[in-house]
C-alpha cells in the first residue's frame, strides 16, 4: 500500500489514540556503542545514530538525558532518545567498500539522512490505534537483532527485521529477511521492529534484550497477547532507514549476488543481511511519550512540540573516533571479521 493513500484513508477516521511517525536527521556516524561496549572507544563496528546530543561513549542510565541534552535531530523536540543501527556498505568487486548514504523518507525529503521512527499502539495498517500501551521509562534501553547472526534459522528468532526493495519512495512491500537480490531503483528500506512486551521491572538486562519479549503468538502487528513473564504492552517501536543505493547502479552485480554488507561483517560471512540490529535508549522529556500515546495523534501530534527540518538538521555531534568512513575503503572501519 502506498503511504500516501494510507494517510489519505486514515484521515477519514478519527482514531481514538495514537500512532506517531516522525523523521530524525543524522546526529553522527561513529564507531561507538554505549550499550554493548560502554567506555570502549572505538567499538567493534560502525553505527549511524539519530536523536539527542547526549549520545556518547558511555551513557549512564541514571542520567536524565532530557535535561542534559541541548538539541535533538528528531521532529518532536521533546524526544532526546537515541536510535541507532549498523551501517550499510557496498562491496566493490575490486575488494574495496563504500558507505551507502542515507536519505530522508517519504515526507521528510530535506532531512540530512537519518531514520524514520514510529511508536504505535496497534498494527501499522490498523485504523483504530486504540489499544492501551505503556510508554518506556527513564533509563530504559534495549537491543533487537544480533550482529553475529549469519543464518536464516537464527534470524527468525527476531520477528519483523526486514528489507524492502524500493521501486519508488512509496513502495512498502514485499518485505524480505534477506537483502534484495537485485538493484532497487529508489534504494533499500531497512525495517526494524522491536519486541513489544516488557517484564515491567527491568529498565535493561545483561544482554539488553531479555527484559523484553514478543507476544505469545504472532507479533504486535497481529495483536498477539503478551506472555505472563513480560505482561506489559509497550508501543511498537519501529525504525525505517532509507539506504540510497542509486550511486552504485552501474556497479551492481548482474548475477543476483548481493554486494551489500553490514558494518560488522567485512569478511562477508553474512551475505544475506541476517545480522541487521538496532539499539534504543529512551530519552523523552517527562511524560511526553505517554501523553502522546494517550492523545488523538496520527503521524503528526499537536500534543507534542515540533521543530522544523532546518532545526533538526542543525543538531549534530562531532565524531569521537577519528578515522576514514567515506570514499572507497580497503577495509571496513575496525576491520571486523564477521
Ligand atoms: C562525552 O563524554 C566525555 C567524557 O565524559 C565528555 O568530556 C564529553 O563532553 C561528552 N560529550 C558530549 C557530547 O556530551
Ligand atoms: C575500486 O573501484 C573504485 C570505483 O571504481 C575505484 O575508485 C577504486 O580506485 C578501486 N580501488 C582499487 C584498489 O582498485
Ligand atoms: C476497529 O474498531 C471497530 C469498532 O470497535 C471494530 O469493529 C473493527 O474491527 C476494528 N478494526 C480493526 C482493524 O481492528
Ligand atoms: C503532518 O504535518 C506536516 C507539516 O505540517 C504536513 O505536511 C503533513 O501532511 C501532516 N501529515 C499528516 C498525516 O497529517
UniProtKB/TrEMBL annotation:
Signal sequence bounds: 1-18
Domain DUF1996 residue range list: 33-284
Protein keywords: Signal
Keyword Signal listed: yes
Pfam assignment, any one: DUF1996
Record keyword Signal present: yes
Protein name (database record): DUF1996 domain-containing protein
Organism for this UniProt entry: Mollisia scopiformis (Conifer needle endophyte fungus)
Lineage: Eukaryota, Fungi, Dikarya, Ascomycota, Pezizomycotina
